[in-house]
Amino acid sequence: MIKELITNTDILSTPCQAATPEDVADAQDLVDTLASLEDAACLAANQIGVTKKIVAYKDPEDNIHVIYNPKLQQGLHASKMEEECLTLEGVVSKVKRFGWIKISWEEPKDGTMISHKQEFTGWYAEIIQHMIDHCNGKLV
């Protein structure tokens, strides 16, 4: 179901709880909402009012991927980047981002969470870090 974007900074700045296999409906709402937004590349669950560590992002072919409980494990090539946020309209902040990251994340399967590790570079590394910040209640 497509959800309205949340702009309430009290909600957006609250650290999210770990996601569980029971959160697949919220993940689907996140996918539906991201798919409905023109020119959006990523979305965190708290941006639709769900304070769970679930994020979605689009790959170069506009396929949407969902990751649960992402954690930054390693980062290289730090620099200051200017970023905007879908739910903090008009705000542009300079934030430290890594050009290469390794994250751990989970996905639900058969009622349990399966762990994964993945590397991202460039712009994808930047948006994943932005989403991890959302999960941790950190606003740009």
Summarize the structure.
This protein is α+β, with helices and mostly antiparallel strands and 140 residues long.
Helical proportion, percent range: 10-25%
Number of strands: 5
Give the helix/strand class. alpha+beta
| 3D shape | globular
Strand content: 35-45%
Strand order of the largest sheet: 1-2-3-4-5
Mean pLDDT: 94
Q: How big is the Rg?
A: 14 Å
Number of helices: 3
**N-end to C-end Cα span:** 27 Å
Largest sheet, in brief, is: 5 strands, antiparallel
Q: Which runs of at least 5 residues are low in confidence (pLDDT < 50)?
A: none
Secondary-structure element string: HHEEEEEH
Walk me through what this model shows.
This protein is 22% helix and 39% strand. The protein has three helices and five strands. With 140 residues, it is an alpha+beta fold. Strand 4 (93-109) and strand 5 (112-121) form a beta hairpin. It is globular. A five-stranded antiparallel beta sheet has the order 1-2-3-4-5.
